[in-house]
Amino acid sequence: MRNENQEREMCCLVTQIIYDLFHFSRSLICSVVGFGAASFATKGAFVWIQILMKRVYNEQERYYILGRNIEYSTLYELGKCVSVVLGIVLGTVISSIRRKANRRADPILCAIGLLLAIPLMCLSIFLMRMSFFTAQVFLFLSWICLSLNQVPVNEIILTTVLPTRFGWAFSEKSVVESIMADKGVTKLLHWIFERLNRAAPYLSQNSTEVILLIIPFMAFVGAGLFLLTSKYIEEDEKKVKQFMNTPDPVLP
Cα(178)–Cα(39) distance, rounded to whole angstroms? Predict the structure, then answer.
């Protein structure tokens, strides 16, 4: 009898949690999946562009700073670290400033960052064989844009989810990011890469570029989901505030 009551209580709790997440925050679902798509694009760019750079590097001029030859990997890692830090800082500053004037500033900022990253990334891919240095500049700018969404996504969760569901919401974000970024990039893109080489051997010289064109598409999907988030975020924030302002709200 006790086991049946415990199972019933657990079932009710899980049902209530799912209801809270979907009823109070449609923007949570859209923003988390959008962040997963953005993470897919970011991780894919970091992994596959490095493969392309390694292939192209030997065909291009060397770079000398203070009389020393600088390897492409040094420039790549340095640019990646600096761009991510700059993107997070810029995203935090812009979000905090614009949120005061526009409650939809966070998802709009995420969408704009992804939409700006798409042409920059495509230009870097097409220019890689023509001008290695120019391609790296565009990559640096695109990585800044891809990193703008790190803090605003957390702000969306904090304002559109009940306080008792923060742990669940952030766990959902981590799981979606892991599935789409880690498994998606390492498994899915590698599977497509092998299929391309088998189905069309003449594409073997440019198969990496073909794979890299999938990444901007995922960034576009993420931007669309963040724009959808901007449609719901104000309504979801009002629902949470109304619920929290009710006298003695019963939180499950």
Answer: 9
